[in-house]
Amino acid sequence: MSWLSRLAERQMQKARLKGELQGLEGEGKPLPDRPGDAFISPGDAVGFRIMAEAGVLPEEIVLKKEAARLREVLAVTEGEEARKAVMAELARVEMRQAMAEEARRRFLRE
Fold this sequence. Notes:
- By secondary structure, the chain is mostly helical.
- Helices cover 69% and strands 0% of the residues.
- It is elongated, with a radius of gyration of 19 Å.
């Protein structure tokens, strides 16, 4: 367990003992199913959640949502030319997403 994980666990334990985790939104409900998060480290997931709650999303998350939207558009698009255009845009967005993810990984390694 990393020092950051130990620190987070300690802070959560203190808050639980003080009763500060009672009555929170979603208490007693199952966690949402987020299969894509299985490939994100817990530290990154926490950071992304904090940014989302503050109304700030990293570029890679914005691009991930755009790619999901384009996949939905592609599923209902008819006509070979229209499908090719949507697929080209999807490929461009997925490439930008991969570049943003790699940039974040490199930043965190340095």
